[in-house]
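Kindly go through the following sequence and its backbone structure tokens. Advise at your convenience whether the structure tokens fit the sequence:

___
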Amino acid sequence: MIKKIVLLVCLASASVILYSFQQKPKFNLKESIERGKDIYIANCLTCHIDQGEGIEDLYPPLAKSDYLMADKKRSIQQVLYGAKGEMKVNGKTYNTEMVGIELTDQQTSDVLNYIRNSFGNKGGAITPEEVNASRKK
């Protein structure tokens, strides 16, 4: 009887150990971009408009944005915590305030991946882990 219990405990322990070594699913940029569109519509569309063109002299464009694409970490920070003060986007200076958006790491990753891969932009993935690391600052 004791041998059976020990055997069951060993098997259960081995199962837990094997499960913990399984790989997480690989990050899928295409799926992230698809999810990000809905987040953009809910949180960004009002100021940055349908095609990311912004509002002349008020809200900077996200479309073909040199500013957006220049610094992934800054983009993460601005979505999370907002932005204030002057910024030069595509050669034009904007001085407006953007409030931060309360999103999860996944949602922040998704909306940035959507923006950075739409409106004429082409950028590498931003993962939820990168967003999380930016929060720890």
In short: DSSP finds seven helices and two strands in the chain. The longest helix spans residues 2-20.
